Amino acid sequence: MYNSVDENSSFEPNISELDMAHLQKLLRRQAQRRLLSENIAILGCGYVGSALADYWQERGHFVTGTTTNWKRVASLSGVVSQVFLMKGDDADAVQSLVEGQDTVVVSVAPTGSQVADEATYETTYLATAKNLVQALKQAPTVKQIIYLSSCSVYGDRQGGWVDETSPISPSEPRSQILSQAEQILLQGASKNQKVCILRLGGIYGPGRELINMFGGLAGMTLPGKGARVINWIHRDDIVGAIEFARLNELEGIYNLVDDSQLTVKEQIKRVCSQYSLPPVYWDDSQLSIQRKSVRVSNQKLKAAGYQLIHPQLLV
Ligand SMILES: NC(=O)c1ccc[n+]([C@@H]2O[C@H](COP(=O)([O-])OP(=O)(O)OC[C@H]3O[C@@H](n4cnc5c(N)ncnc54)[C@H](OP(=O)(O)O)[C@@H]3O)[C@@H](O)[C@H]2O)c1
Question: 138-154: per-residue pLDDT in tens?
Answer without folding.
Answer: 999 999 999 999 999 99
